[in-house]
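Researcher: Good morning. I'm working through a list of sequences from a screen, and I'd like to move beyond sequence-only analysis. For each chain I'm collecting a predicted structure so we can compare shapes side by side. This is the next one on the list. No need for commentary yet; just the structure.
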Amino acid sequence: MPADSGGRTAACGRIRYPRLFAIALTALLSAAAWPARAAADGGGVPDIVNGALSTTWPGIGAIIIDANSQCTGELIAPQWVLTAAHCVVGGSSFQFTSANNYLDPNAVFFAADASYADPAYNGDPSQGGDVGLLHFPSPIPAMPLRLNDGSGAPHTGDTVAIMGYGLESPSGNNSSKRIGYATIASTSGGLLEIDPGGANGCFGDSGGALFTIGADGFPLILGVMSFGDQNCTFTFADPIPGVLAFIESGASGLCLASTAGPPCDGVFTSAFELAF
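Model: Good morning. Structure tokens for this chain:
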């Protein structure tokens, strides 16, 4: 596991190019959590441990932070992207793309004009509140995903999908979007824990969506990936109902489980969206 200049073990952060960017957290997590920001270099190793390459859901994209590190985020309203708090804390420049590979020379990037972290986040993701928001000056031409507003709370044993741009293993590079399927092992302690037997998040997947597919074939975001162990064998996520108050207080025009009509109806409305 990488260490910062003071020799401390990195706990939860973004991967930075060309090397890992270490953020020291509390001793509680120092031996366990992966830095979730990923190195945005061009090595081509895909993301999501035990996952597969994906070209679906253009509302889920990569976030490039200060031109040197990367997280994952999802469009939840035309001008708002949801991600992890530790992905926005300390950053000053954020670019979002839904390209299947963010190193594609044809990738389209959108620059955020504001960022917000949940005030409940204290730097220790095991305490919850690890969610953040990015605002964009103009609508992003992609389909937003719906948020679980309590109508479909996840339960232990439920099968979920996870998607992100992180690593496929603890070592290597990354740039591609992948999807994997997993089982919720626990909902205790205010966090969702993913069973290590299925897909799991890794470095760079922080902020990525943990979701289910509704009867209409449209994703419903259940949680936001936050942290895991250094070997990328388990993942914890913040459940949406627990952070929805912050999201609703900061963002407008949200797509919720009960929202009907465009742009929250799961229907692509332009060729530009399909181009992602």
